[in-house]
Design brief:
Elements: E1 4-10, H1 18-30, E2 38-40, H2 53-56, H3 63-75, E3 78-87, E4 90-98, E5 104-108, H4 118-121, E6 131-133, E7 136-142, H5 149-152, E8 166-170, H6 178-192, E9 195-199, E10 202-204, E11 210-212, E12 216-218, E13 224-227, E14 233-239, H7 241-250
Parallel strand pairs: 1-2, 2-3, 7-8, 8-9
Antiparallel strand pairs: 1-14, 3-4, 4-5, 6-7, 9-12, 10-11, 12-13
Helix pairs in contact: 1-3
Length: about 260
């Protein structure tokens, strides 16, 4: 495993204004001067956390998708984040994993935040996603998924090799519940013997709900490699593959993990 350079973009979002958000994010992405392998945007990065799915949703391969494809190519890095997708009349909070060569994969948010009626406007995802980048296996998830450890679980194969090396969450996580965000990001790193990365937004949304960031990266010991307070920030961090493998050799907790199956 080579070292992996990841860039987190923690920013306010314009409420339900796709063009303003895309223009703003494009400017920020061009501010990244150093080389990076992965650029992570917040949840619903082009609208904010909107329940107006029919108004804000767009089909695949349209404006936002093409913009992600263009930026991944120009920055020579994977670009990922979620936005509202209309897929044959069903609406998804869909994360796109866009590679520089134009190839992509998708993950639809599994756990919909019923306290904001997200489950009334969107369809839940049914499939996990594991992607590979520079020898790393990465599991991307979305916001409320963070609260569900079974869905986040790092399973091992018959050779006792763990399923992923980095788990990441893109979010619009409100300030009122930021303690849960901080705690669970750290817990996911520890229990899964992996790096854990979370990108949250800052600023108030169109419903007057404040967000205070706390984007972070935790190592497999639960140590904070990077932590952002309540501020707009672009940060690139290098993650050590050697350090991860060395720790897993010394502390192979997966050998004692319980077996289980997930039923949809």
């Amino acid at each position: 495993m080579q070292d992996l350079k990841v860039t987190l973009i923690q920013t306010p979002l314009y409420w339900q204004d796709k063009q303003a958000n895309i223009s703003m994010l494009e400017e920020k992405m061009w501010e990244i001067e150093e080389d990076t392998d992965l650029i992570v945007l917040p949840e619903m990065f082009n609208t904010g956390f909107s329940m107006e799915a029919e108004k804000m949703g767009e089909p695949m391969n349209l404006h936002t998708f093409k913009w992600m494809k263009q930026m991944a190519s120009q920055k020579k890095a994977v670009v990922t984040g979620s936005y509202i997708v209309n897929d044959n009349g069903s609406y998804y909070n869909r994360l796109i994993w866009m590679q520089p060569d134009g190839e992509y994969q998708i993950y639809d948010k599994r756990h919909l935040f019923r306290m904001a009626n997200e489950d009334q406007h969107y369809s839940p995802g049914q499939k996990e996603l594991i992607v590979e980048l520079k020898g790393w296996k990465i599991k991307p998830l979305v916001c409320y998924d963070l609260r569900f450890p079974v869905w986040s679980r790092n399973k091992s194969n018959e050779q006792n090799e763990l399923e992923y090396d980095l788990i990441l969450f893109v979010a619009n996580w409100p300030a009122v519940r930021v303690n849960a965000w901080d705690t669970l990001l750290q817990a996911r790193a520890i229990e899964n013997v992996s790096y854990c990365l979370g990108v949250n937004r800052v600023g108030d949304d169109g419903n007057g709900i404040p967000h205070n960031g706390h984007s972070a990266i935790y190592g497999p010991k639960g140590n904070a490699i990077y932590f952002a307070d309540d501020r707009e920030e672009i940060k690139t961090v290098s993650l050590s593959g050697k350090d991860l493998l060395r720790f897993r050799e010394k502390f192979p907790a997966q050998l004692d993990a319980d077996e289980f199956e997930i039923h949809n």
